[in-house]
Amino acid sequence: MVTPQPAADGPPGTGSVSADVTGVLRDLAWTIHRRTPQVAGIEPLPTTELAVLMHVLESPGLSVGEVSRQLGLRQSNTSAALRTLGERGLVAREPDPDDRRVTRLVPTERARVEHEAIAEGWAGPIVDALAALPAEQAAALTAAVDALQALDRQLRAQQNTPGGAPAR
Tell me, which fold does domain 44-156 have in CATH? Predict the structure, then answer.
């Protein structure tokens, strides 16, 4: 196995190691995203609708504007995605108890059930693929869980800051 070396002419973290990691993570995310609904037997959602639905599942009770800001989407795009998600019975709007002018977005029971079906649908093939890897590679992936969770938290924090700047 060849270990990538950072480029000598760039700042730390911008060399080939970063390019290798970002490329692999992007490809892995795309592979999982593409196959998950089919594996779970659920009609796939376009990327924007999936992002909005996942955000509502993770943070129920947000307003349309809050979802738009946190995902970095135009409010019109968020509204269009929510309209489709509502038509599919995946997201409901509830009045804010403190301000009736504001509606809060909540996932429906159907969204929760489909989310669990997708989680189960993609977990099986990933578990099978991990089991087929050499023990050393499976152990390396297991050891990387904390670092991957930290990367996820950092990316989520960046999407919630103006311009997507790294949170410090």
Answer: Arc Repressor Mutant, subunit A (1.10.10)
**Residues 15-34: pLDDT tens digits?**
566 878 899 998 988 887 77
Mean pLDDT, range 134-155, rounded to an integer? 92
> Which is nearest to 143 in space by CA: 129, 156, 158, 130?
130
Closest CA to 40 of 148, 126, 145, 131: 126
- Chain Cα centroid distance, residue 151: 12
This prediction's pTM: 0.67
Q: Exposure pattern of 82-115 as b/e (b: 16+ CB <10 Å)?
A: bebbeebebbbeeeeeeeeeeebbebbeebeebb
- Secondary structure (3-state) at 104: strand
CA gap 1, 161 in Å, rounded: 38
Question: Tens digit of pLDDT for each residue in 31-56?
Answer: 877 765 555 567 778 889 988 999 99
State the pLDDT at residue 124: 82
Alpha-carbon distance 17 to 103, whole Å?
45
Residues in CB range of 95: below 8 A, 6 or more apart: 102, 103, 104
Which one-letter DSSP state was computed for residue 12? T
Domains of the chain by residue range: 44-156
